Structures are given as C-alpha cells and as structure tokens.
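quick one before i forget lol
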Amino acid sequence: MWNLGRFLYLGAVHEGARWVWRRIECGELGEPQLERVELLIAVKEALETRLVSGQSERSISSYMSSILAFFRFLEDHHHPFSLTRLESHYLAFAEHLFIAAHKKPATLKMATAYGSAAMLSGVFGEVLDIHGSARLINRTRLKAPHTTKKAASKAAEKQSLENTFKLGNFLVDLKAGLSVEAVLGPLPITIPMRPGLVTSDQIRLCAIRKDPKWLSLPKDQWTDGQKKRHRAMMRVREPVSHIQGTYRWYFVNLRVQAEFLLFIAQTGMNVAQAKALGRSSLKYRPMGDSWQVRCYKGRRQGEVSFRIYQSYKPHLEQYRSFINHFFPESEFLFPQFDDCGQESQTRAALNLQGFRSFIKGMSVPWVPPSALRNTRVNWLLRRSSDIDLTAEMAQHTREVLRDHYERPSQQRAMGEITRFWHKHDPIQQSALTDSLIASQCNGRPEGAEDKPASVVEPNCVNPSGCLWCVHRRDIDSGDYVWSLASMRHLKSIEASATPARETVPADEAVARLSMMMEWYRSSSSDRRQWVEEAEQRIEEGHYHPNWSPIIEFLE
C-alpha cells in the first residue's frame, strides 16, 4: 500500500494495492506516466519525513487513504499529476468533498470530508512549503464539524456503569480461571463465575470450535466414526507440558486480551500506547493510593511510565508471571499468538475483534477500550467533582478533558444544583424545624406571591397556610408524600361538605397538593412509586398518623 510507484500507471488508482503489480508487470496498464514522477517523489519525501519524526505507521496509512482518494479525483477528472498545479487541484478536490457532504442525500459525512482534506492540507503544505498560519484547508469551505454533547439521562448513566462493572467482573473471573495450570491441564477448563454474570454461574472452555451436537447423545447411538473422533478428542484434552503444536494458545490469547482491557480500565492509557508497552523490569514507586510504574520500551530506547491503583498491583504481577511462562522472549507486555500458534512480532497483533465475539457469545455486554477510558474519566469526575484532579489522573490537560472526554451528566448536575442551593439557601440547615404539614421551615411564616386571596396567610397555626409559605422546604421521602396525599384527602372532604358553588379555600389546597404530588410523580421512578403507594394507602383507608384522627372523625 505504501508503494507510490503504482500511481505512475493509468488506472492503477482504481486497482487494489495487492494485485495491481501483476497487471503492471503484464503490461495491462501501459507505460509509466513519467510526468507524474515529480509529484509522487515530493509526496513520498513528505511522508517519510513524518515517519522519521515519530508519527506512527497507522497515521501514515491514514494519509495514504486520503492521498489515494485525491489521486482518484485527479484521474477521474482528467487533471494532470503536476506539482506546479498541486494547490489548485487540492482546492478543487476540497470543493468536491464539500459538495458530496452537503448534497441531499449526502454521499459523505462532513467529519470524513473535513478529516480527509485536513490530512492532505498538512502533507501538501509541507510539499509546497506553505507556512502553518496559511494552511490550505483554511482556503476551502470545509469547516470542522462541531458536535454538541448530549446529556445522558440518569437511567442511561446507570446502565453504562452497570455494563462496565459487569464486563469488569467477567474479565476478573475469566483471567483468574485461565492460569498456567488451567491452560496446560485437562480440558475442558471450567471457570466459576460470580452469580448473575452468566446463565449457569460457570463457563466451560474446550476448543476454538463448539462441541458437536452428537456429543450430547447417548454413547450407544454414536456411529463408529463419531466414536473414533471422540477418542481423538479425549487424547487432545489430556494434560500437556507445553502448548506448542496444540490449539491451547487460544486460551493464552483470551487471558492476554482480558488483561489488556483491565489494564486500560485501570490506567486510562491510550490503546496504541498500551499495545506498545514493554514488560521487562517493571519498577514500582508508591504515590499515595497508587503506584507509578516504569518500564523499558525497546523501540523508544528509554523508559515509559504509567500509574496503577494499589489494589491492581497483585493482578499485574500475576499476569507478568503468566506471560513469562508462555512468552519468555517477547518484549511486549501484551503479546499474542497468531492463528498458527506462533508469537506475533508486531504490536498491532492484539486484535480484540475475536474477543468481542467471545464476550457477546457469553451474553456479557461489550464495552470497547475507548469507552472504558471515557467511562473511567467521567466516573472520576463525578466522584471527585474536581476537573483539575481528574485531568491529572487521566494524563490530559483541562481543555482536552472538557473537549473530548467529559460527558454531560444529569446525576452530577443534580448534585451540583443541590450543593448550590444548600450553599445559597437563606435558611441554614441547622435552622430548619418541622412544619405543620410534616415538611420543614424556619418557623417564620411569609406568604408567597402566588398565594390566592381566599387562602389564609401562613401563620404556623393553619396547615393550609404552609402550602404557600416561601420558607417551606419539601422533604424527599415516601413518608412525606404519604402525608401530602392524606392532607389532600382531608381537604377533599372539607370541600365536599361546603354548600357554596364557588371555589373555596379547600379547593385551592387540593389543587396545590395535587400539583406538588404530580411533581413527585414525574420527577423519577422512585418518587412515582411513592405517589402510587400513597394513593393506594388512601384508597384502603390507611392515612398518615398526622391526619388520620381528624379524617376518621369527619368520615
């Protein structure tokens, strides 16, 4: 894919990089277009400069995808591959992307269009020696799409954390069951799970493929071929001294992948950085409730560091012993076997696609590494309410944390609002006393502006006055809701006993109490249950002790 020489030939931009050279060698694409050499060499040098300066191979691959799209545009529109006309051709390509993203229906997402143009702007800016303040992309109509953060509901936040905790519990149980002795011992491997994680409270791992259905049949119903296959399976399942030549490397990969996800959740490290970590000579340094870990990274020719929680250190040490047994020569902290059972020599070998299918097959919610990091940051932010501390623990700046990681949280917002009003409430918590209707107040009656004229002024004697007192503080409890429902029933009795047809003070009190209970009903599922239970008690004639004597007297 990185060989730009194929673009010297007409039509090569529409051929796969793996197969195009066969057609070139057969002469199917004609002679090379030598006028393209100058542009291709300039682009090649710009990419090599980025690679030498420290950019990853994955980034260069992304550049190549955008460059390929640009070359296709040039060839499809019969534009020459010319270095002197590169700037004008880039602007034409950016306009092409803009139109594709804005037409209806759009054939390209705005984020994709801008990302591709921005990549090319950086590479071509180096080719044309354009200063960063005059970036090519700034001369186009493409703008970075602004994504508005949407607040997650309290139920969604709870579900997200529940899925994360369930996955974490599953990973801990899985790695505990995949010890060196279990991998080398008799098959199948039976791993106990804590209740509620899987249907049977345990999982059985035997092979990459599932057992055939005929194994569940009585042995006298097996064919001769099935019996022979069963004997071979039993021999394979016997304990071994090493995994070479067996498929037990699959269990080792499962353990490494589970440990990798736990490591991401514990450290919050970038996935690419974690894949490239070396494992030799880990050095621990206590730092409060956590440890700073240093290790030598061969490719960097130096040390890298990360932090872990103190309780995670024993788990990391057990994992090191595990990979020391199966990967004694590997330099990576998270090595993997390939499909042939041989150790892969590249850091990109840690592919979680198969592990994702394995997790979903166990009916466990899958949370990708990026979501684990994001959940970790927002959980820390919610628990600490300190954005500077959270940014430091996540190894980000305050701005990066706010722009890319922080999610609006209804639960955190409710907590902040509660703390704000507690701090700025003119009535201090220590000055609150019980009111006539089982709420709280400061004992200084004062009427609200919306109090109807027919209702008595608050006086700490008449309960109806409490409903329009500005110093009343409702209580967030089921008992208080029951008291409101009982009072409403009492006022309904009073209103029904009044012969007058016009609205009476008792009607106003009933409407006020109904409005208060409706707020409790619509605010949350727990409060809705309080209202429903209170109403059911009233129907059964079970009234709150504050109101039951007078209600029973009137009835």
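fyi The first helix runs from residue 20 to 25.
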